[in-house]
């Protein structure tokens, strides 16, 4: 008879986050917080330093994008902004592991991935300025609209993955047709019903979908340790696919682990779950005040694991970049920041009537009736306003 499974003996749910934030040997790491390259028995980064410098550049630009978003909200130019601060490596590493043929389903925080996917800044900011619904070209960017309903995108992603599987994308030797799906979700989302249903469907159909769980330790004010007795990646095995924890602040490890998961999905080995162990350095959104529920010591401890600093330290140490290179990057980030601000301030609301045209690709008669009713209501309203002046 087999041995009964031992209950997990990790930190009790009441433990401080100190235990959870400690790097564990279960976690794939290739670049330490001190900027030292380390070996892993199963995963190796084979790119060169020029490639790593490219990731550094993209992480710096993503951080600038985010800082501008937060500032624009503070200046009243955006209604809301969900900061990505601290999650740059998780986003750039995973975003660089997808191919043009792959499809991405984001949450509401993957601005860095959106940037890599050429989602226009104006479309992204329009969503948070309330001038549009985002409306970027999903087919051209292969980056789905943001999803505010927690976890709902994992259902869309799994359904989409089953669709491309049906269309012959999986295991296809033609690189133009071979594809998989990358579905982002948070640690909090992993407790949602929708997300668990996605896991079940993905496993049962061996759908080509990779669940990329950004464990930033918090779901607004709820810490991860309060919602799972075991590390999140260990849950995956219960559904029937591999789960792996990666240092989410290590861009090299995230890239390599996501490459591995996406490739096995493209080949037909089914789903995988990646837990990117990282930290939300900022507020949940600009409407949130994290000082109400977490200690500054915790944030400080994570600041020492900054995803950008470790790459800088490494590249400076091996002489792949120098201060002049960094100054050029700063200048590029300044220019990008100006572009973000200008794009935001030029956005104007489009007529509400346009919204009706975006409900379905081909509007139903009912939606057309509603649009016409809205237009005639507006015309009547404007006429009444005019006559009362
Ligand atoms: C179905 C649903 N329930 C609740 C909310 C409110 N809500 C917005 S963000 C959030 C927490 C999400 O946490 P997590 O999945 O860890 O993602 P993070 O925000 O940390 O990136 C909640 C509960 C929502 N948007 N949708
Ligand atoms: Mg979270």
Give an account of the 3D structure.
With 389 residues, this protein is an alpha/beta fold. The protein has two domains: 329 residues, Thiamin diphosphate (ThDP)-binding fold, Pyr/PP domains (Rossmann fold, 3-Layer(aba) Sandwich), CATH 3.40.50.970; 36 residues. The strands form two sheets. The chain has a six-stranded parallel β-sheet, with helices on both faces. Helix 8 links the parallel strand 3 and strand 4. Helix 2 packs across helix 3, helix 5 crosses helix 13 and helix 7 runs parallel beside helix 8. It starts with 16 loop residues before the first helix and ends with a helix. Thiamine diphosphate binds next to strand 5.
Characteristics:
389 residues; alpha/beta; Rossmann fold; 2 domains; two-stranded antiparallel ribbon; 8 strands; 46% helix; globular; binds thiamine diphosphate
Put the structure in a nutshell:
With 389 residues, this protein is an alpha/beta fold. It is built from 15 helices and 8 strands.
CATH class of the largest domain: Alpha Beta
Structurally, the number of domains stands at: 2
CATH domain topology of the largest domain = Rossmann fold
**What is the end-to-end distance?**
87 Å
Helix share of residues?
40-55%
Low-confidence stretches: 1-8, 10-23
The assembly state of the depicted protein chains is single chain
Helical stretch count? Answer: 15
The helix/strand series, from N terminus to C terminus, equals HEHHEHHHHEHEEEHEHEHHHHH
Q: For the CA atoms, what is the radius of gyration?
A: 22 Å
Q: Which small molecules are bound?
A: thiamine diphosphate, magnesium ion
Spatial strand sequence of the major β-sheet: 1-7-8-4-3-2
3D shape: globular
| Fourth-level CATH superfamily of the largest domain | Thiamin diphosphate (ThDP)-binding fold, Pyr/PP domains
How many strands, what sense, and barrel or not for the largest sheet?
A: 6 strands, parallel
The counted number of beta strands is: 8
